[in-house]
Amino acid sequence: MAARQLLPLCWRATLTPVVSTASRARVCARPSAWVCHNFRVTLIYYPLNPNTPALSGGSLWVASRAPAFSRVLGRISCRAAAASSGQHGIRHYYQSTRGAGEPQHHLHIVDLRSDTLSTPSAEMRNAMGRAEVGDDVYGEDPTVNEFQQQVAKILGTEDALFVTSGTMGNLVSVMCHCRNRGEELLVGDQAHLYLYEQGGVAQIAGVSPRLVTNLSNGQLDLEELESKIQKEYPDPHYARTRLICLENTHNRTGGRILPLSHLREVRLLADRYGLAVHLDGARLINAAVALGVAPAEIVQYCDSVSLCLTKGLGAPVGAVIGGRREFIKECLRARKVLGGGMRQAGILAAAGLLALSQAEDTCRADHHRAKKFATGVQQLASPVCSVDLPSVETNMVMLVVNEPRICPQEFCERMWDVSEAEILELGRGVKVRMFVMYKRTVRLVWYRNISEEDTEMALNKLKFVVQQYSAELGIV
Ligand SMILES: Cc1ncc(COP(=O)(O)O)c(C=O)c1O
Q1: Residue 34: its pLDDT value, please?
Q2: Does residue 251's CB lie within 6 angstroms of at least one atom of ligand 1?
Q3: Bridge partners of 68?
Q4: Whose CA is closest to atom 16 on ligand 1?
Q5: Which residues does the UniProt record annotate as the domain Aromatic amino acid beta-eliminating lyase/threonine aldolase (predicted)?
Q6: Which terminus of the chain faces fewer neighbouring Cβ atoms within 10 Å, N or C?
């Protein structure tokens, strides 16, 4: 069967691969690329000899009688990468660099796009399997109850509530702080709650968000924050400011930590105007570990906090809200109306319990590896890309692609692609996934599944890509 017959119809490319007989050496694969219908299609071939190292997993096996494929069992890896410049800008939040259904058996993958990619350990799965459960909507799941008590202790709050996700934790908290029509919250213009939660606070809670500038370290501009509080209320022209929302660590600015002094100042301001403070603490434990304080020391400045289990902590599902007993009672009602009554949720809470008991060590290791990688990039001292080392405070690294001739998206693609040259030079193919955060900034995030060795391999890959660019662009 000819290769083109096996390709999806929308890719009407005429495939004219070159199979080199000279490549009968150790590596026989030869990638070729075509541009068609705005997609670049990359094919990587595999010879019949099973001892030959494969370059890539693929989505399709092709047994061809066509002359060009003679005696070649070609495994085709079709990766559709947007070639039009419009799609080469900022990547959509969850866009993947992987071809659909493309298994990667022979190459090492280091996926640094997000700590949400963390997967539960075998120990966690065992704990989930053993978990005692009951109907949590009746308040009868013993594991959930134990988990909530534990969390309340860690957060230093009167009570805690298990919810499905960080997004639900934030939304439920906002719903319970802002209970009347015409209320408003103040939030950073780079906050996850504002940018990446579908405007849920407006859409569902009916609360309008008023934006305050997030500084490059994730903190709020305090002068601006005060100026945005509606002081004219109850003048009927104005909404009533009810709530200030903070984020710690701050995702968009690269896992930056809000210093305790900043939290204290926000608290004082909130008290002066009778406002509540909610903390999006999706990565609160990262902040606490990096600051060397107990999580409760951070939370003491807030009326409520939401903490995610699924990021650096590595549990598969869930988040938790901490706050005063009466507040959590209201949250329970809000969670239910949003469909968050989870019945035998002890299976999930069991993973959360274990994740929390290991959180400090996990986060510390992640921070160390992120710093190690960033230090390696800094030591390269390359005009191609750089990191601001002091701003690497937790598990994220923001890599800036400084060379204007290099598109950050393309840089990411090169970190993902594997060439013969790479295998020859590094001894194996490593595919690194990264995430273009904005314009020229690429985000890399460490989590439980990313080992020392992965970190080293990712750094070596980056060095290789930088070298390649330097040679191609004449950068010395
Ligand atoms: C700072 C922050 N808050 C909230 C969330 C939302 O968490 P979830 O994905 O569990 O809804 C995220 C997710 O990445 C986050 O980074």
Answers
A1: 31
A2: yes
A3: none
A4: 251
A5: 111-402
A6: C
* Collapsed DSSP state (helix, strand, coil) of residue 107: coil
Where is 34: in which H helix or E strand?
A: strand 32-36
Which CB contacts under 8 angstroms, 24+ apart, belong to 80-88?
A: 80/11, 80/39, 80/40, 80/41, 81/39, 81/40, 81/413, 82/38, 82/39, 83/35, 83/38, 83/39, 83/40, 84/38, 88/407, 88/409, 88/410
User: Is 286's C-beta closer than 6 angstroms to any atom of ligand 1?
Assistant: no
Cβ atoms 148, 320 nearer than 8 A: yes
* Count of CB atoms situated within 10 Å of the CB of 459: 21
pLDDT at position 476: 78
Distance 373 CA to ligand 1 centre (A): 24
What pLDDT score was predicted for residue 453? 97
pLDDT at 194: 98
Both tokens of 428, joined, read 């194996």
CA of 271 to the centre of ligand 1 (A): 27
Q: Specify the residue with its C-alpha closest to ligand 1, atom 4.
A: 166
Distance from Cα 310 to the centre of ligand 1, integer Å: 9
**115 Cβ below 6 A of ligand 1:** no
Q: Is the CB of 164 under 6 A from ligand 1?
A: no
Q: For residues 318 and 316, give the distance between their C-alpha atoms in angstroms, rounded to a whole number.
A: 7
Q: Is ligand 1 within 6 A of the CB of residue 310?
A: yes
Cβ of 280 closer than 6 Å to ligand 1, yes or no, is yes
What pLDDT, on the 0 to 100 scale, is given for residue 70? 28
How high is the pLDDT of residue 69?
A: 32
Residues of the chain with pLDDT under 70: 1-105
Handedness of CA 291, 295, 299, 304 (dihedral sign): positive
Our answer on whether the CB atom of 304 is closer than 6 Å to any ligand 1 atom is no
pLDDT in tens, 222-238: 999 999 999 999 999 99
Beta partners for 125?
none
Cα–Cα distances (Å) from 47 to 20, 147, 424, in that order, read: 10, 54, 18
What pLDDT is recorded for position 93?
46
For strands 108-111 and 81-82, give the pairing: unpaired
Among protein residues, the one with the nearest Cα to ligand 1's atom 14 is 116
For residue 247, the SS3 value is strand
Candidate from 94, 311, 321, 435 with most ligand 1 atoms within 8 A of CB, to mutate = 311
